[in-house]
Write a structure and sequence with these properties.
Layout lengths: L33 H13 L3 E7 L2 E8 L1 H13 L12 H16 L16 E10 L5 E2 L5 E6 L5 E4 L6
Antiparallel strand pairs: 1-2, 1-6, 2-3, 3-4, 3-5
């Protein structure tokens, strides 16, 4: 299989419309965890949210998994809510960044059954809300609350469902 070939890692519909169960055997080798990839697709497609803990190259990241669209909306909202540094034209850096994040949302809004439907590729990124990172030596970053976090699915070495309670 060449690296340019698109592989559908989601459940495929047969001619009769029945959903087929995905199998790790038909996934490309660069998809490190087919199950995590499927969970990210479910979250993206159905706007689900749930706690998850990831091991990313020996670092623990824990929070609530959210979809890519939700991530962009929340980034735009958090930027728009903290307007502080005014530019020469009266706009703020935060307003510019909020518009930037919002400009990507329509690409994720293209749904099946529409004329301009875009097929969903295998997810490359996983998004967390209220994410906290457990560093070596037991340091938790950030120490209070959590942040929006985005990472490559292929960089995740392992995961468990449920988020850690750092309180």
């Amino acid at each position: 299989m060449s690296s340019n070939e698109r592989v559908d890692v989601g459940p495929a519909a047969s001619e009769e419309g029945a959903r087929q169960t995905p199998s790790p055997e038909n996934l490309p080798s660069h998809v490190q965890d087919w199950l995590l990839s499927q969970l990210v697709s479910l979250v993206n497609d159905f706007q689900l949210e749930f706690g998850i803990t990831l091991n990313v190259h020996g670092t623990i990241v824990s929070g609530t998994m959210i979809g890519g669209k939700q991530y962009l909306e929340e980034m735009a909202g958090s930027m728009g809510a903290s307007s502080t540094s005014e530019q020469g034209d009266g706009t703020t850096f935060e307003q510019v960044m909020a518009e930037f994040f919002q400009s990507w949302i329509p690409l994720l809004d293209k749904r099946k059954g529409t004329e301009d439907e875009v097929p969903a590729p295998a997810p490359r990124y996983i998004h967390l809300r209220d994410a906290r990172t457990l560093m070596g030596g037991g340091t938790i970053v950030p120490s209070k609350g959590g942040v929006l976090w985005r990472g490559r699915v292929a960089a995740v070495d392992g995961f468990s469902l449920g988020s850690l309670n750092f309180g």
